[in-house]
């Protein structure tokens, strides 16, 4: 082999570079084929790397979407739990309010029943007080002082017991007639203007208990006559 041929061979090998080493048996068309094949492989590698990069980006996007969806589901569940909690709390508060109102109503009903029971008992005792009043108004000459004192003491004790239960005697002589407290049995004519519509006589005392009239006083009322 001549020196020129050796130099040409070395030049071709250097020119091939990454396309493969040439030897004495490699022809020109083969070199071109190998160059083209190497370029195709290089482009395929670049495309594969780009596709892999795109796949990674798609995977990142998919992962972000999954995280976003998971966060949304958690928020929806939390919102549902808060709504359910509010419903339970509102129901419990309503039940508690209803229970407290029922207890108050029961206590009020019980107090009213006790008060009516006491009123009923006092009403049963009032005829006894009426008998005392009649006895005091009828002062017989044969009554001894000791008897009168004894009767007055019993009457005073009975009134004291009733007072402890908030019972007040209504003896309205001289007061203005009041339909809520007095029961007019008879009207008496009068020519005195100051006596008009005033009670001139009490036929039966009235009684009030806890600020409520349990028996109106039976009275006679003056009525002004025109001259």
What would your notes on this structure say?
The structure is a single chain. This protein has 227 residues and is an alpha+beta fold. Among the domains are: 3-85; 171-227, Roll (Nucleotide Exchange Factor Grpe, Chain A, domain 2). It contains three helices and six strands. The strands form two sheets. Strands 1-4-5 form a three-stranded antiparallel sheet. The protein has a three-stranded mixed sheet with strand order 2-6-3, with no helix packed on it. A hairpin with a 2-residue loop joins β4 and β5 (212-215). Residues 1-24 have low confidence and may be disordered.
Give the arrangement of secondary structure elements.
Blueprint (H helix, E strand, L loop, with lengths): L2 H14 L11 H110 L7 H20 L2 E4 L11 E9 L8 E6 L1 E4 L2 E4 L1 E8 L3
Parallel strand pairs: 2-6
Antiparallel strand pairs: 1-4, 3-6, 4-5
What tags apply to this protein structure?
227 residues, alpha+beta, Nucleotide Exchange Factor Grpe, Chain A, domain 2, three-stranded antiparallel β-sheet, three-stranded mixed β-sheet
Task: Summarize the structure in short.
The chain is an alpha+beta fold and 227 residues long. Helices cover 63% and strands 15% of the residues. The chain is rod-shaped, with a radius of gyration of 60 Å.
Instruction: Give the proportion of residues in helices.
Output: 55-70%
**Radius of gyration over C-alpha positions, nearest whole angstrom:** 60 Å
What is the CA–CA distance across the termini?
Answer: 176 Å
The gross shape turns out to be rod-shaped
Sequence stretches where pLDDT stays below 50 over 5 or more residues:
1-24
Number of helical regions: 3
Q: What's the β-strand tally?
A: 6
Helix and strand sequence: HHHEEEEEE
**Computed structural class:** alpha+beta
Rounded mean pLDDT score:
78
Strand order of the largest sheet: 1-4-5
Characterize the largest beta sheet: strand count, sense, and whether it forms a barrel: 3 strands, antiparallel
Which percent range describes the beta-strand content? 15-25%
């Amino acid at each position: 082999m001549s020196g020129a041929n050796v130099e040409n061979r070395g030049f071709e090998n250097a020119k091939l570079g990454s396309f493969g080493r040439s030897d004495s048996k490699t022809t020109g068309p083969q070199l071109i084929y190998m160059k083209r094949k190497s370029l195709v492989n290089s482009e395929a590698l670049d495309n594969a790397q780009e596709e892999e990069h795109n796949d990674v980006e798609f995977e990142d996007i998919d992962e972000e979407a999954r995280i976003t969806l998971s966060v949304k589901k958690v928020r929806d569940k939390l919102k549902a739990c808060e709504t359910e909690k509010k419903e339970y709390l509102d129901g419990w508060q309503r039940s508690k309010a209803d229970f407290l109102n029922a207890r108050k109503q029961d206590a009020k009903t019980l107090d009213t029943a006790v008060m009516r029971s006491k009123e009923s008992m006092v009403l049963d005792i009032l005829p006894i007080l009426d008998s005392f009043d009649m006895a005091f108004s009828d002062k017989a000459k044969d009554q001894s002082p000791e008897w009168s004192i004894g009767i007055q003491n019993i009457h005073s004790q009975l009134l004291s017991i009733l007072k402890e239960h908030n019972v007040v005697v209504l003896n309205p002589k001289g007061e203005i007639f009041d339909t809520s407290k007095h029961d007019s049995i008879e009207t008496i004519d009068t020519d005195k203007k100051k006596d008009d519509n005033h009670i001139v006589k009490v036929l039966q005392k009235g009684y009030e208990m806890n600020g409520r009239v349990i028996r109106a006083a039976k009275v006679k009322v003056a009525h002004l006559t025109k001259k």
